[in-house]
Design brief:
about 230 residues, alpha/beta, 5-stranded parallel beta sheet, 5 strands, about 10% strand, globular
Length: about 230
């Protein structure tokens, strides 16, 4: 059986990546493809527990400030479990795996935002993740102002609706997010064959327009999917 395809979605919170991942998954499934979706952190029993620590702003009240190196280590613990439990088995079965965030997020948020540096992140990725690389990465980069406003509104709605609090990162200052945005741009410049960027003009179009653009990119860059 041919190995499957690994596609990741990246961007700041509020970029629209989660919505677009879901839409792409639905479209691929409607055409008979086996599609596995997951998010990071999360999607495994261990990952969901780590997600609560990493994203819930109340975790620092209970546990105290989370050291940036500890934060990065937890991200990689989540990722290693997801690779072993979900990603590699699905790829071995020929599935298309769509992942909401992967190591690019760690390089952007911890390497750039926390100023830990890219090289340390990449070294850990090689050691812990056996250097598993996505076949394709869709990077949505609307303006920083647009992304942050969307993310903060969404998280406040979630708190009011069901008590879910994943605001820990959103409480960081805008300068933190500017470093993340810059790091994403650097990753895309370094790996243009893997990372396809929907910049401010494209990613701030209508949801339907962005969806159609992503379909075209997937069909163009993943050769065996061109018949879609």
């Amino acid at each position: 059986m041919a190995r499957g395809y690994f596609i990741t979605f990246e961007g700041l919170d509020g970029s629209g990546k989660t919505t677009q991942l879901r839409r792409l998954a639905e479209w691929l499934r409607s055409r008979g493809h086996k599609v596995i979706t997951l998010r990071q952190p999360g999607s495994t029993e261990l990952g969901d527990r780590l997600r609560a620590v990493l994203l819930d702003s109340r975790s620092e009240t209970a546990l105290g400030p989370l050291n940036p190196m500890a934060e990065m280590a937890l991200m990689f613990a989540d990722r290693a479990q997801a690779i072993a439990e979900i990603i590699e088995p699905a790829l071995a079965e020929g599935a298309i795996v769509l992942c909401d965030r992967f190591t690019d997020s760690t390089e952007a948020y911890q390497g750039g935002g926390r100023r830990l540096g890219s090289e340390l992140v990449l070294q850990l990725h090689r050691a812990i993740c056996n250097n598993l690389q996505p076949d394709l990465t869709i990077l949505l980069l609307p303006s920083l102002t647009t992304s942050l406003a969307r993310a903060r509104r969404r998280n406040q709605r979630n708190v009011q609706k069901d008590g879910t609090d994943e605001n820990r990162f959103e409480r960081e200052p805008d300068e933190f997010y500017a470093r993340i945005h810059n790091e994403y741009e650097a990753i895309a410049a370094r790996e243009p064959e893997r990372v396809l960027v929907l910049g401010e003009a494209e990613s701030e179009s209508s949801i339907d327009a962005v969806e159609l653009r992503i379909r075209a990119l997937v069909a163009e860059r993943v050769p065996t999917l061109t018949h879609l």
